[in-house]
């Protein structure tokens, strides 16, 4: 690990310099295996947050959300330090990925830390100077829980092809026009793309969030085959 | 081999000899699917087996649920690392469904409502190793978990247990299904940790 930074109070980005990394597509993940001194080991999957090649060169970035009852994530957020080595396998996954040659507009729907693989897609589009318009609908509990907030603000300012809409479920910022609420038909209808545009939809987050958002997209008339989902299940 | 993670190992999860390598125990029932959950009305549900010669055997919901069913308790292992032990199901054994099917094929492609596919050797479907299950824990199988009916092949990683299954196509040669074409293992034995291509 060559660098690290906190995205929120509970989500930390790990910047990894991976020897012989073959490159990856945005949306792919890696498996991390931790091994204790007595040989006990545990592995979990983490989405890649960065595009390839990354802005700063050949690094791979993961953003890890600390789960309070977790076994691996608290180690990655609170214990591992710059200079430590991690055992990593990947990139993995060939379905929940965005490819820059896909011409369709893109709708990204993120619940909480489900934003991570979608951020990789936004960054990859930026890197490739993609002309496909992107919209991100990002559901967070409070403004403080939003990852990448400054970077998203900057990208939206500099890039007319990118829109970001936040949904706040517990506490909205001062002056926000709507009370806190969960993602619903009105949000996806207003801030998504019309189904006629045949957008590629990527939905990522906890199971209940993904079920709700994907069901709404189908009900609004989006083709189920154009909706790719990734659910963060288990602990 | 492997890198020792300094200071790791303080908050271990419970372990069990029934847990394959690299898996952890969970007591809830996570959901993993590649797209939205399809809702299939029972009057439109059917299950077919198509042989390599094109012969087709089909059951509608009433015919299918009138078949002799097993109640069974098995462990399930998801490639995303969770395992759930002692899950109770009700379903029709593939031995029953295949009893009148004339086929010499060594492989089958399971097909689902919504377009999902997964490949399985026929010998892994027979001899009491696989079912088309329609109840979980005494209740009708919820759509999120693959209802009205899903394939259940508990000795392989759970992606082989196709949700919303609607048929099997018998194949003389092995071909990759949906996840197998996206980098996952063709067979998927959790005890050999066959997660991805090359394992």
UniProtKB/TrEMBL annotation, chain B:
<dbReference type="Pfam" id="PF00174">
    <property type="entry name" value="Oxidored_molyb"/>
</dbReference>
<feature type="region of interest" description="Disordered">
    <location>
        <begin position="1"/>
        <end position="23"/>
    </location>
</feature>
<feature type="domain" description="Oxidoreductase molybdopterin-binding">
    <location>
        <begin position="35"/>
        <end position="179"/>
    </location>
</feature>
<protein>
    <submittedName>
        <fullName>Sulfite oxidase-like oxidoreductase</fullName>
    </submittedName>
</protein>
<dbReference type="InterPro" id="IPR000572">
    <property type="entry name" value="OxRdtase_Mopterin-bd_dom"/>
</dbReference>
<dbReference type="InterPro" id="IPR036374">
    <property type="entry name" value="OxRdtase_Mopterin-bd_sf"/>
</dbReference>
